[in-house]
Amino acid sequence: MAARDAIVFEDFFPAMVEKLGAEGFMKELCNGFRLLMDGEKGVITVESLKRNLGLLGLQGMSDDELVCMVREGDLNGDGGLDEMEFCTLMFRLSPALMNSSRTLLEEALVCEM
């Protein structure tokens, strides 16, 4: 992709957390994971992302860009994103959530008790 064609992501996550609370936001992330995952493998793969690009509004992404997206979040090196890796990646991609992640974690833990 040329620099002028770069995809710019607007960080809507802080607004979602404010509206849904930490627990509701985590449920939405998990729903997003299930929407994008390969049903047979139980992880998000390059192929499952490719099939779901329309849902994300990212139809113009190349295979190389998809590989990079999966590789960025693939912490265990298995070639796919499990639910925890996906959620971790989503937090890392949101600077505002990274700054407030401790507060969100504490709120989620209080809800669990």
How would you describe what is shown here?
There is one protein chain. With 113 residues, the protein is mostly helical. The chain has a single domain, classed as EF-hand (Recoverin, domain 1), CATH 1.10.238. Helices cover 65% and strands 0% of the residues. The protein has six helices and no strands. The mean pLDDT is 81.
Features:
113 residues; mainly alpha; 6 helices; EF-hand-dom_pair; calcium ion binding
Please write the string of helix (H) and strand (E) elements: HHHHHH
Task: Please mark out the parts with pLDDT under 50 across 5 or more consecutive residues, or reply none.
Answer: none
Q: Which topology does CATH recognise?
A: Recoverin, domain 1
Distance between the termini: 47 Å
Determine the CATH superfamily: EF-hand
Strand content: under 5%
Helix count equals 6
Number of domains: 1
CATH hierarchy: architecture? Orthogonal Bundle
In round numbers, the mean pLDDT is: 81
Q: How many strands, which pairing sense, and closed or not: the largest β-sheet?
A: none
Task: Supply the helix-strand structural class.
Answer: mainly alpha
Tertiary shape: globular
Helix content: 55-70%
Find the count of extended strands (DSSP E, 2+ residues).
0
Rg from Cα: 15 Å
CATH class: Mainly Alpha
Topology:
Elements: H1 13-36, H2 46-51, H3 53-56, H4 63-73, H5 83-92, H6 95-112
Helix pairs in contact: 1-5, 1-6
Domain EF-hand: 61-96
Protein name: Calcium-binding protein KIC
GO molecular function: calcium ion binding
